[in-house]
Design brief:
- By secondary structure, this protein is an all-alpha fold.
- Helices cover 67% and strands 0% of the residues.
- The chain is built from three helices and no strands.
- Helix 1 runs antiparallel to helix 2 and helix 2 runs antiparallel to helix 3.
């Protein structure tokens, strides 16, 4: 699978913490898709999405991102587990 998939959210549009977390999710997603039968790859993807989830929650509290936008992003990234 190539890395040419276009994700809904561009990490360049967000602050450094969110950006780094999104990059980690994308890398984990591609790694998992290359090796879908290796359970650890799935768990790594799940962990990276959870890390992003926590960062988004923190950024809502700090007022960096709206709660609506954060929820949309969390739903989108959790949905990657089903692709």
């Amino acid at each position: 699978m190539s890395n040419s998939i276009k994700f809904k959210y561009d990490y360049n549009d967000y602050d450094e913490d969110i950006s780094e977390a999104i990059k980690k999710v994308e890398e984990s997603f591609f790694d998992y898709k290359k090796n879908p039968n290796i359970k650890m790859k799935y768990l790594n993807l799940k962990d990276s999405i959870y890390d992003l989830h926590l960062i988004l929650k923190e950024k809502v509290i700090e007022g960096v991102i709206s709660s609506v936008k954060a929820e949309e992003m969390k739903n989108y990234y959790w949905g990657l587990l089903l692709k």
